[in-house]
């Protein structure tokens, strides 16, 4: 099976989306970096094989798995039941909260303050769906909404002033806010009642491989690697509630 | 009467007409022959004010063609012209081709214009082609259409510029026959032509053009069969 | 092959796809119409040889023809964004398409005009028509026939190129497809349907264009 | 904590150059393959019966009526799902070449057909064989006649190669996209990219029009 | 000797040759005249095996042209042919045009081929044009090039298909002079032509084609000046 294949091959082909800092991005040397990249390397080390990072677009994730180009995709994949019909998910390895980032002078206190603001998000993400569902429920319409092809473009749009606020993940927002460019911006409210729980994905049929990956995730937490990466890319220890919810496989 | 008086005309540095004088009386048929580039077409264009001139004068019925005061569009209604290349309007039927100018230039009603057009088309033998598109017709038929189209404007003079040169040999006859018919009806005509037989038989006078001047001008039979100027002799022997 | 096709999710989302197709169609129509208007002005400017206008027109045409459409769209979206000019994805794609259409159509119009033999002008003049009449009745109708086909092609091109809206998150057919597929991970199914829809749209456009041309243009040239 | 945003600097030259090289490489591959395939298909279409023509035409029609971007996504996904994962360069080259072929074949077909039947007959009447007629007469004359159109298609391929970025090929535009994300300086980078395309495309397209004008005379 | 025996030929439903029989002896010059579409060109193409035939036989020096066993490329080397138009290869110089077939068909060495080509070009009066491209030459010169190119293959027979029809009237003479020269040298020739003067003066016999059959065949002067068949009379009066 897949597990044997990887070990015999001697390399782990690990797909990452490098368009989603700080989980995956290019550093100033234009090399892959980020939390997910760290996980790839740890997994390869655990298997005792070389790590081969493949840069995927969001759309590449499934085909790359099915075709065997990648053995596993560590790419912040939200574990919806719809998607699970197509692909095999591990236990969660990270939980994002969806949050608003906007310029400080907009002074956003609650999600309802977005009503008359221009809001953006990355196309096809779960938080886009959540925002649109919320907007529909409140009768805001979609005129104020702008989709971006990627997370990076959404921040660029925010930075340029195309939109007043962007919905993104709490982790991404936190790292952005530490940068000089976004000093005039502030994190706003969370999207009500929603956590984005993400897992690694592998071929749906590879049960044994997925249980190996599940165990790997447990060891990442138990062995402290998780916290190390969190420190590197988020600048603090991993919050206890995050660790707890991952342990609970929530 | 068309009166051409010492006309000079250049294209840039190239002097094409170098002092041409010529009178064409009402009812007269004049043929112009001469080598390629000798300025025959240019002269016709100048008579029609499609090209300007640099020296001299041209009068059509005592109107100075190239004077600023002359309404040239008006003037051209008097002067029908047919060119070497079939100039039918390809996007209109034969009837529309012939009726267009009467309608939009002479402001006839549509019915009137069509009536005039039909009459002239029958005149040139295209009575059965009203609704055909010109591109579907032979070159000879297209030339006859061009003649009918010009005639529909009831011009006083007709200018023909090598109207048979681009035709297959078998089609030349039908067009020449049409010209002959017009000549017989007394139309005043200036015909640039390479058909020596036609020039000899149909026209009253023939002018031989050589490098922008009239090298010989005389009674038709004489110029064609017994040219005086050695240049004319040489030219005629070449085109046989 | 390790893949099962799940078509039902696509059919559930058909209304959204059709809506995307509609956006595709109307952004291309608008881009075409405005492109034509600008192209006429540019073509006149180019043919008049009046220096400043001719220069502007030439610059426009050359930039439009010599840089990728994708570049134009990024430029309209993020490039102008950096200058504080914020176009929505729709407007950014629209203006990029207008820009390119105008550039290409300028040359089409100019070529079409120059392809009418000057003897048509002389012949009309010799019938006593005024210059305006010559254009109205002789030159323009013939020119329209000659540019009709290239114009249709340009329109089809616009439809296909509006698919670049996917890259600025525009909700046209490709953008919608992209969004829907990432919700269910049914990449193949969604894009196959999108491909078929594009094919049908372009065929419909070509078909109606040839119907129209048969109605409009009777004689051949 | 790693910094997310860093301005573009001279140290990025290599990265940009890789993008440039990748754009150039995939364009050349697509133009060469597209031209060769286009020649073959164009010749086939000029020479074959109506039925073959309709069949071939139908396939080419699909390539011309579906946006390139969709073709790229579909193909790279499909071939992956089939179990033959290709890297973006290979997948991109295949689709871009086929796409190019679809246009080139029309160019060459008209080139072959532009050699007047009488001229082919003249050649045959000198005793040349069918193959000799193709090789000595139709190819050289036809190719000359279509050079400007060929160049036009080739240039549009260079421009269209930018779309291969959607399947992850690091060509110039995707490279610059990355730099934009990192530096938040879109205007400067995009202008640079525009200039690059322009200096490749403009002289060639001007030359093409010059040749076209010369041939028209 | 070329022997044409009851040849029939159709394009689809259209029967173009309806039983043509004709013998052309070595050294003879035969002119074919006739209206457009009467099948003149088609007959030449059939002689050359460029078109197939449906009934009858054609022999060239006792070789059955249309037999499966005949090597047609070989046969065509015997039969030089010049067309109305589109003769020169525009991508080669005049010399290359004339030297190509000797080199690639007859497999001569390059030097030999060029020598032969030069000789024939001088023959037709193009001795000063070796390195010119044909598109830079007049139509008459291009036709003479086509003749030289065919001659360079040392054919036993020459077939000419209206070689002057597409030419300006002033250029016709030079090409006819070349044909005359060949006739004088004893070349066996079949000339489809519209030039009645040429047919009368240069050829031995003239065949008049009408709708796919030979309506009249006889001694040249007789057919042109005193045709027997009313169809021939009508045709000749039209082309005058
Ligand atoms: N619009 C123009 N611009 C520049 N030169 C021109 C123009 N029209 C004609 N010419 C030149 O003027 C000269 C005379 O031309 P014209 O057409 O009057 O000759 P032609 O006697 O009618 O010859 P042909 O028998 O070939 O028609 C030629 O050398 C021609 O090239
Ligand atoms: N390849 C072809 N396919 C179909 N019909 C043809 C073909 N070639 C010639 N024809 C038809 O055969 C008839 C005879 O043609 P052909 O060219 O032999 O006439 P021609 O006597 O040479 O006339 P012209 O003087 O116009 O050259 C014409 O009606 C023509 O349309
Ligand atoms: Mg003239
Ligand atoms: Mg013929």
Automatic annotation (TrEMBL), chains B, E:
Species of origin: Marinobacter psychrophilus
GO CC annotations on file: plasma membrane
Transmembrane region(s): none
InterPro entries named among the record's database cross-references: AAA+_ATPase (IPR003593), ABC_ATPase_HisP-typ (IPR030679), ABC_transporter-like_ATP-bd (IPR003439), ABC_transporter-like_CS (IPR017871), MetN_ABC_transporter-like (IPR050086), P-loop_NTPase (IPR027417)
Keyword vocabulary terms for this entry: Amino-acid transport, ATP-binding, Cell inner membrane, Cell membrane, Membrane, Nucleotide-binding, Transport
PROSITE patterns named among the record's database cross-references: ABC_TRANSPORTER_1, ABC_TRANSPORTER_2
Topology within the bilayer: Peripheral membrane protein
Family matches, as SMART domains: AAA (SM00382)
Gene3D superfamilies found in the cross-reference section: P-loop containing nucleotide triphosphate hydrolases
Family (UniProt): Belongs to the ABC transporter superfamily.
Locations listed in the record: Cell inner membrane
Residue span, ABC transporter domain: 2-236
Record keyword Transit peptide present: no
GO molecular function: ABC-type amino acid transporter activity; ATP binding; ATP hydrolysis activity
Domain of life: Bacteria
Protein name: Glutamine ABC transporter ATP-binding protein
TrEMBL record, chain C:
An example Gene Ontology CC term for this record: ATP-binding cassette (ABC) transporter complex
InterPro entries xrefs: AA_ABC_transptr_permease_3TM, ArtM/GltK/GlnP/TcyL/YhdX-like, MetI-like, MetI-like_sf
Residues spanning the signal sequence: none
GO molecular function, one term: L-cystine transmembrane transporter activity
Membrane topology field: Multi-pass membrane protein
CDD domains in the cross-refs: TM_PBP2
Keyword Methyltransferase: no
Subcellular location field: Cell inner membrane; Cell membrane
Record has Phosphoprotein as a keyword: no
Keywords: Amino-acid transport, Cell membrane, Membrane, Transmembrane, Transmembrane helix, Transport
Membrane-traversing stretches: 20-45, 74-100, 151-170, 190-212
Main location: membrane
Family stated for the protein in its record: Belongs to the binding-protein-dependent transport system permease family. HisMQ subfamily.
Protein name: ABC transporter permease
Source organism: Marinobacter psychrophilus
UniProtKB/TrEMBL annotation, chain D:
Membrane protein topology class: Multi-pass membrane protein
Family annotation (InterPro entries): AA_ABC_transptr_permease_3TM, ArtM/GltK/GlnP/TcyL/YhdX-like, MetI-like, MetI-like_sf
Keywords associated with the record: Amino-acid transport, Cell membrane, Membrane, Transmembrane, Transmembrane helix, Transport
Presence of keyword Cell membrane: yes
Cellular component GO terms, alphabetical: ATP-binding cassette (ABC) transporter complex
Record bears the keyword tRNA processing: no
Alphabetized Gene3D superfamilies for the sequence: MetI-like
Regions crossing the membrane: 20-44, 90-108, 129-147, 185-205
Pfam families linked: BPD_transp_1
Alphabetized SUPFAM superfamilies for the sequence: MetI-like (SSF161098)
Chief subcellular location: membrane
GO MF term list: L-cystine transmembrane transporter activity
Family: Belongs to the binding-protein-dependent transport system permease family. HisMQ subfamily.
NCBIfam families with a match to the protein in the record: HEQRo_perm_3TM (TIGR01726)
Protein name: Amino acid ABC transporter
Organism of this sequence: Marinobacter psychrophilus
